[in-house]
Amino acid sequence: MKQYVFEVLEEVQKASKKEDKIKILKENETWALKDIIRGSMDKNVVWNLPPGSPPYTASEEHNHPSNLIGQNKQFKYFVKGGPGDKLPPFKREAIFISVIESVHPKDAQLVIDMVNKEKPAGITKALVKETFPGLLQD
C-alpha cells in the first residue's frame, strides 16, 4: 500500500537535503500528493469553498473508511470553474465534509490547509518545479 499523503510530506519535511526530498516525492508520487501540493501553492487554483475549517467529525486514525488516493477525485467539485460550480453551495460543502471525514485525520488537515492555501511544511516552489515540472502554473 502507498503511504498516506501526510506521511510522505512528513518524510520530506524531515529530510535535510534537496536531493533526498526530491527522491521521497518521486518515489511516492500519486495524484493525491500532487493535488495537495498544487492546490496549496498554485495561484491559478481557486477554491470555491468558504475559508477556514468547516465543522466536521474527524475519523479515527486507525479506522477511516477511505484515503486521499481515492478521495482526491472529489477535489474537482471544490475548484472554481469546475463541475462543482453548478452545485448549490451547501451540496458542494457537504461533499467536502464527507471527504475530510472519510480520510485519516492528518490527511483531512492537509485538505483543509490546501483549501486555505497553506503550503505543506518543507515544500518550496523551487522543489516542486524541479521534482514535478509543469505542476505549478505560476
Structure description:
The chain is an all-alpha fold and 138 residues long. It has one domain. Helix content is 49%, strand content 0%. It has helices at residues 5-14, 18-27, 31-41, 68-71, 89-102, 105-115, 125-131. α3 runs parallel beside α6 (105-115) and α5 runs antiparallel to α6. It is globular, with a radius of gyration of 15 Å. The model has no long low-confidence stretch (mean pLDDT 95).
Largest β-sheet summary = none
Regions with little confidence, pLDDT below 50 for 5+ residues: none
Count the domains. Answer: 1
Determine the fraction of residues in helical runs and give it as a percent range: 40-55%
Name the beta content range.
under 5%
If you compute it from the alpha carbons, what radius of gyration comes out, rounded to the nearest whole angstrom? 15 Å
Distance between the termini: 33 Å
Total helix count?
Answer: 7
Question: How does the overall form come out from the CA principal axes?
Answer: globular
Mean pLDDT: 95
Query: What is the SS-derived class?
Result: mainly alpha
Order of helices and strands: HHHHHHH
**How many DSSP E strands?**
0
Protein traits:
mainly alpha
Summarize the structure.
This protein has 7 helices and no strands.
